[in-house]
């Protein structure tokens, strides 16, 4: 297991009632709305960016948590009970992004977050968004912190990446595991007769990639085919019968997604006596 703690490398906020204002190196971030109702209000939005390039591409992300630290504002208005976190569709830039040119967000990535009471920080699980970034299914343009609780008037203040207290900067903690070396190999040897036989049934559905390698180590011509099963009881042929001459090796994998695979083998009808084969299963988690 590997743990990466990524501090935000840039952040900013924008205000709808000051659409041309471009905050620069602000030590805090605004999130919420001021005003009653759903039409006439001032919107406070903030943006964060984390550099994901330090996460190796061969790592598998198991969790990702965003931690934010509150600044307690001295306000008469009530703080919202929720705020939203959403992936950005375009990048932002501190000291040049304002409300008019603010980036848009990706709707299906919205996560509604409840605010804890009497807490100095909040930790939010955003694993799916981070997985999308890491796999390049989404461009990493950063995150928006935005209001979703339009029934209240008020906003939250968080420490930004420019806060004088570096221990309270926003941080993204990512837990990964490397898929290097997470492999499985099993080798078996079998004698082959006219009546035929079967290899050990292998449970393969949890592997991301796997192959059966069959080598004819005897002096008889052998026929074989792959078989698949959902329950390790009923097997059906998976592909065509394959001929294997003495000294030959063939590689094959299932054409279908099933839980179990095995190899069926038997001597060619023109042969007599006993042949011999080796079968490997090599797989990657």
UniProtKB/TrEMBL annotation:
It comes from the Bacteria. Its main location: secreted. The keyword Manganese does not apply. Keywords: Secreted, Signal. Residues 4-176 form the Carbohydrate-binding module family domain. GO terms for cellular component: extracellular region. InterPro entries: CBM96, DUF6385. Residues 205-284 form the DUF6385 domain. It is found in: Secreted. NCBIfam families: DNRLRE_dom. This is Uncharacterized protein. It comes from Desulfotomaculum nigrificans (strain DSM 14880 / VKM B-2319 / CO-1-SRB).
